[in-house]
Amino acid sequence: MRKEIILPGLALGGGLAGFGLRRWQWLSAYDAQTQLYLHGAPATFALLALTALLVLAFLVLCRGKRRPEGFLDAFFCPSPGFMGLMAASGFCFLGAGLLGLLEWMDQFQLFRISRDAYLSAYPAALLPVLLLTVLLTFGSGAALLLVGRAAYRGQLDRLTALLSVLPGYTGLCWLFATHLLHGTDPVAMRYGFSLAATILMMLCHYFAAGFFFGRSHPQLLTFCALLGISLGVISLADGPSWFQLALTTAFLLSLLGYGYALLSNHPFPAGGRMPSGAEREESSIPDEE
User: Fold this and answer.
1) Is residue 49, in this structure, part of any structural domain at all?
2) Looking at residue 281, what DSSP letter applies?
3) In this structure, is residue 22 part of a structural domain?
4) Cα–Cα distance, 84 to 76 (Å, whole number)
5) Which of 20, 56, 87, 218 has the fewest CB atoms within 10 Å of its CB?
6) Burial status of residue 271 (CB atoms within 10 A of its CB: 0-12, 13-18, 19 or more)
7) Using one digit for the tens of pLDDT, what is the confidence trace for 72-99?
8) In this predicted model, what pLDDT tens digit does every residue of 247-262 receive, in sequence order?
């Protein structure tokens, strides 16, 4: 069974089905005047049922993976499709950084024009957290390009290992920003899918970085990647800003890349040449010698 194709395809298909149900929920079950969801709406039950089925399916299908010895043992993938996903993710992160700077400048301008009105709508901590998220987004773009090249060529270096943590930190700051925006909202359904998707995307990159330092959790990474893809696609139905849209797309592409490589489970060749013609270099990263 081509798990590297079927499982990400299932995650994308489930996300697209959930996207349709989420739009149906916004159109039929949400009351804009009261800002509440109608009790007993079929769209809500259908969306929650689909989410529960996806969680159960991924819990069952992600069981039983062997524990790789290191990053290359888990993610070595000499596939142009994989490299294309990681490169697209890296460039999307860079594009999201530019859009994030524009969004931050707009927020800062509103703060300067009317500080009291701004603070009544947004917490004071939002501006610095948003700026930190944007700055980390640029580093995440470079990190994904390096990580993708390392997995494609089978060559590691210390810089790639150090930068691999940046996407996880970006997800963490994005999670804080999302919480600051919606933390006082009593209706969790309005932002719950976006918050859950952000958590899963952050955890996926956290587990991926752990492979560089002898902390491999392939089952948890696969589960977070697949469910993160589904919930990330569903969250796009909430009408995110351009920055959030670009950042979600960047994370989705990276999760597809990590999931494809790990599920492909290409054994790293003990010797010989890589498909690119480059010899495997000795690495100073623990567990990769």
Assistant:
1) no
2) P
3) no
4) 14
5) 56
6) exposed
7) 888 999 999 999 999 999 999 999 999 9
8) 999 999 999 999 999 9
